[in-house]
């Protein structure tokens, strides 16, 4: 039998902190055998006095790609309207604190340590996954700090995810579903969508991003069983770019908004989904909040242009460096479309620097870059992760017609760009894993805030 994924801490910058000792103890509690249920969560939440019953109104977000960006847009819009917003996302990039935002501010070490210690004591040493016990600690914090709304992102799947303990959210959101985590969610898009649809609650409205036909059918079946009103992109609402603006239209009317700050055509879809979710939530938000939200939304390592830092200075002068955590087929398609758009605006040779986990489909991720990227440099994913061998990634790239090589690190890959002729400084995309993205941000001295 297979152990559930631990979803433990990613890269940690600097010296160890007191909270890291708790993380080590919590990781040691991980169940040895698979147990797909919410029983551990219910047991722990009961011992903690059911903080899930004392939360502000919740918007629950599941899906394969775009969850974090959609949450980032909603947060920016809500905060522009003066709302105090709790946010729960995963995984983190550099520090665990990024997962928990309390009324607009990342949780500090002292408050985080206290909540984790309380959850650890209540658990009493019983088997529990890292994600489950840290989610319980997050819910405890969200119940303790006043806020107007909680944006709650699913960790894995939906039906049996540790976040799926909310009785009646304001609205459920499902971003586009694609193939990922097949060991735990199923081998087909329909099976995976069925797991995502597990967050739907009886009578609670749900907003869906663009879905493959079989995914939509699976979600619609679950919605029909529960009497869930659906708002489906392309059917009940539309979102598209027009004249450099974002246009979102539904039965309530049309919104003409600034183009989203986040880069790439896929962010038009994510922004439209966020706007529709908040309209369905019926919070009475002013129009200016939607406008400001489009201008101010930030989400690190999602086609983020890297600025000067210890890592980027290893590249030759003039190299344009971008970072993204994309790692599956849909992520590859979205990134390739975004890079093609950048190529249309300012033409540069494209070099991929890719590191991936061993359980990801490298071939599916790389396929959209055929004919777009000039070459690929495969690197290992830093840390104690089961990364794909760089040579295997390079071989997959060659199968798609890319020149490919390996390097021992991202820094070495950037230094190797000196081989490009003068005047042909490339555009570089570092991608393939959120763990790799976190390591890059940490090494470049860019900590998310």
Report on the architecture of this protein.
The chain has 449 residues and is α/β, with parallel strands linked by helices. It has two domains: 18-296, UDP-N-acetylmuramoyl-L-alanine:D-glutamate ligase, CATH 3.40.1190; 304-443, Mur ligase, C-terminal domain (Protein-Tyrosine Phosphatase, Chain A, Alpha-Beta Complex), CATH 3.90.190. Helix content is 36%, strand content 16%. It is built from 15 helices and 17 strands. It has helices spanning 18-27, 39-47, 67-80, 109-123, 130-144, 182-185, 189-196, 213-226, 265-281, 287-296, 329-345, 362-366, 390-398, 410-415, 434-443, and strands at 58-62, 85-88, 100-102, 105-106, 149-153, 171-174, 206-208, 230-232, 238-242, 245-250, 253-258, 304-305, 320-323, 350-354, 375-378, 403-406, 427-431. The strands form three sheets. An eight-stranded mixed sheet has the order 4-3-2-5-1-6-7-8, sandwiched between helices. Strands 12-13-17-14-15-16 form a six-stranded mixed sheet. A three-stranded antiparallel sheet has the order 9-10-11, covered by helices on one side. α8 (213-226) links the parallel β7 (206-208) and β8 (230-232). α3 packs across α9 and α4 packs across α5.
């Amino acid at each position: 039998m297979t152990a559930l994924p631990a979803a433990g801490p990613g890269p940690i910058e600097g010296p160890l902190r007191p909270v890291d000792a708790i993380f080590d103890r919590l990781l040691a509690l991980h169940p040895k055998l698979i147990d797909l249920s919410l029983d551990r969560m219910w047991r722990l939440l009961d011992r903690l006095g059911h903080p899930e019953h004392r939360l502000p109104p919740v918007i629950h977000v599941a899906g394969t790609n775009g969850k974090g960006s959609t949450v980032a847009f909603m947060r920016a819009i809500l905060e522009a309207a003066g709302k105090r917003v709790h946010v729960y996302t995963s995984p983190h990039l550099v520090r665990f604190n990024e997962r928990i935002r309390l009324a607009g501010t990342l949780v500090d070490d002292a408050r985080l340590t206290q909540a984790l210690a309380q959850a650890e004591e209540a658990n009493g040493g019983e088997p529990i996954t890292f994600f489950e016990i840290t989610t319980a600690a997050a819910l405890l914090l969200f119940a303790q700090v006043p806020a107007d709304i909680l944006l709650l992102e699913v960790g894995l799947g939906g039906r049996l995810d540790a976040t799926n303990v909310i009785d009646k959210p304001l609205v459920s959101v499902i971003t586009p579903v694609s193939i990922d985590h097949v060991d735990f969610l199923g081998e087909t898009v329909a099976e995976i969508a069925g797991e995502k649809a597990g967050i739907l609650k009886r009578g609670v409205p749900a907003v869906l991003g663009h879905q493959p036909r079989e995914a939509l059918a699976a979600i619609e079946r679950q919605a029909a069983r529960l009497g869930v009103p659906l708002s489906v992109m392309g059917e009940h609402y539309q979102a598209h770019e027009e004249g450099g603006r974002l246009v979102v239209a539904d039965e309530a009317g049309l919104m003409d908004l600034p183009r989203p700050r986040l880069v790439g055509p896929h962010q038009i879809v994510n922004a439209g989904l966020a706007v529709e979710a908040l309209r369905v939530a019926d919070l009475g938000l002013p129009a200016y909040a939607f406008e400001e939200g489009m201008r101010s939304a930030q989400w690190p390592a999602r086609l983020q242009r890297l600025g000067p830092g210890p890592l980027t200075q290893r590249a030759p002068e003039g190299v344009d460096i971008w970072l993204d955590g994309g790692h599956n087929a849909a992520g590859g398609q979205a990134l390739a479309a975004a890079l093609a758009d950048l190529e249309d605006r300012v033409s540069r040779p494209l070099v991929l620097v890719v590191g991936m986990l061993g359980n990801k489909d490298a071939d599916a991720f790389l396929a959209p870059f055929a004919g777009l990227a000039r070459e690929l440099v495969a690197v290992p994913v830093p840390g104690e992760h089961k990364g794909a061998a760089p040579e295997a990634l390079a071989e997959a790239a060659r199968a798609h017609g890319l020149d490919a090589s390996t390097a021992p690190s991202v820094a070495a890959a950037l230094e190797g760009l000196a081989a490009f002729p003068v005047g042909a400084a490339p555009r570089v995309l570092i991608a393939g894993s959120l763990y790799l993205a976190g390591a890059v941000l940490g090494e470049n001295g860019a900590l998310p805030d």
